[in-house]
Amino acid sequence: MANGCPVTTSRARGDQFERQAERYLLEQGLTLVMRNYRCKLGEIDLIMSTGQTLIFVEVRYRKNSLFGGAAVSVTPAKQQRLRRAALCYLQSKGLNESQQPCRFDLVACEGTNTHWIPNAF
């Protein structure tokens, strides 16, 4: 707290929306595998599963949809970092993309709305 007021960092806000996205995806029937996977190549917010498929989830928040909104904020460069981090995760588990079905989903939080985009990229 600074001057008696709570301090909201972007990391704390990110954690809040990642938990919101996690709850939403659990309600949709997905299973949580891991939160905040980090490796030298990047970070994956959530790793979920459904059936045999691993789902690498990017969670994005924007206060509103001005400037394209949350979904547009996942640039091609960010997608590439996510792919590399996913490959790192798979290798750490002794898997590869040809033997493990996987996909990349996006949960876009804009204001009070949550949008789940399976197979986002």
Please give a structural write-up.
The protein is α+β, with helices and mostly antiparallel strands and 121 residues long. It has a single domain (10-117), classed as Trna Endonuclease, Chain: A, domain 1, CATH 3.40.1350. It is 32% helix and 35% strand. A hairpin with a 2-residue loop joins β2 and β3. The relative contact order is 0.18. The model is unreliable at 1-5 (pLDDT under 50). InterPro entries: Restrct_endonuc-II-like (IPR011335), tRNA_endonuc-like_dom_sf (IPR011856), UPF0102_YraN-like (IPR003509). One of its GO terms (molecular function) is nucleic acid binding. This is UPF0102 protein BFR47_13640. It holds the Pfam family UPF0102.
SSE order and pairing:
Elements: H1 10-27, E1 31-39, E2 42-50, E3 53-62, H2 69-72, H3 76-92, E4 102-110, E5 113-117
Parallel strand pairs: 3-4
Antiparallel strand pairs: 1-2, 2-3, 4-5
Précis, in short:
The chain is an alpha+beta fold.
Features:
121 residues, alpha+beta, 3 helices, 35% strand
The name of the CATH architecture is 3-Layer(aba) Sandwich
In which range does the helix fraction lie? 25-40%
> In percent, how much strand structure appears in the residues?
25-35%
Instruction: Give a quick account of the main beta sheet: strands, pairing sense, barrel closure.
Output: 5 strands, mixed
Low-confidence segments, given as residue ranges, are 1-5
**Any idea what the radius of gyration is?**
15 Å
Physical arrangement of strands within the biggest beta sheet: 1-2-3-4-5
Number of strands: 5
CATH class: Alpha Beta
Number of domains: 1
* Helix and strand element order: HEEEHHEE
User: Within the CATH hierarchy, at the fold level, what is the topology?
Assistant: Trna Endonuclease, Chain: A, domain 1
Output mean pLDDT.
Answer: 86
Protein name: UPF0102 protein BFR47_13640
Organism: Oceanisphaera psychrotolerans
GO molecular function: nucleic acid binding
Family: Belongs to the UPF0102 family.
